[in-house]
Design goal:
The chain is of the alpha/beta class. Helix 3 packs across helix 4 and helix 4 packs parallel to helix 6. The two termini are about 30 Å apart.
Amino acid sequence: MSVSLGHIIEGKRIIESSNSPIKVFNPSNGKVISTISNASQKTINKTLNSSQRAFDEWKNFSIAKRTSILFEYKILLEKNIKKIANIISKDLGKVHDDAVGEVRRGIDNVEYACGIGEIMKGEFNKNISTSIDSWSEFSPLGPVLGITPFNFPAMVPLWMFPLALATGNSFILKPSEKDPLGSMFIVELFSKTKAPKGLLNLLNGDKDVANELIRDKRIKAVSFVGSTPVAKKIYETAAVSGKRCQALGGAKNHALILPDADIDYTTDQLISAAFGSSGQRCMALSVAVVFSNIKEKFLKSLKTKTSKLKFGFDNLNSNSFGPLVSKEHLDSVKSYINMAKEEGSRIILDGR
């Protein structure tokens, strides 16, 4: 029996009934492990009010006190690295080493946020012109919204909210509906610190919830990571609403293999780039351009190594990479292979 995950407001789970719950699958076996529901208008309003109250309190905390709370959070994350990684593996299908690496890179961002005092100081310049001095200072904005993708459910949120909080803002996280478990756990960890309740809230749901939050005047800034079409749409919506916005879209990565390249080293790096996180990341390499005089040597090395990659559903601790996050993603990848074949490409190794 799957469990409804609800939302996290002021450190507590808020469970809502829904006529159309969103199923969360374990991609390793296809089983439903939990469900979420779109946050209702009532819950969204409650969350925004909570974030505003927390902001009104938090903005008056000294930088030193904010930093001490973030250090407290960093320690909690470090103590729970393996647990967070296991949740990510179950929810996303990411192999254990990749999941651990993701959490560690997220913790690096928390550590950076702990040193925010040096950046927040502002500056003062005397006599920049006759009888004129100048100074700059930084002020928090208010509640900030973060909309994060499925492929890094811990790292990308940890890019966002530690820095938003360190600079005096409150934060609402809207994680991907495909794999919210890891994001929910790191938010619940934060509720164990001495921060004001409601400083970091989490709402589950699909694009309707995200759009509702973006349009609300209480949200002062938006941070997004995801596909380019959605990034453009979110940036447009935020701009029309007069909000600050950073919207990071997808990428298309290429490699140029020169004649003097170390082939063994190069193919190692290409395989890591292409298959890490099962290719489900913006830095996944999709095109390699090789000089003709090293083509055969390059292809032989690449094919030999790729054929030895271990995959499957049995053990994510020993696999080279895990399953794709959903059947839709699998169908999409298969369509790319078919398209390449139809356009005249030669498939040298087929894993279908």
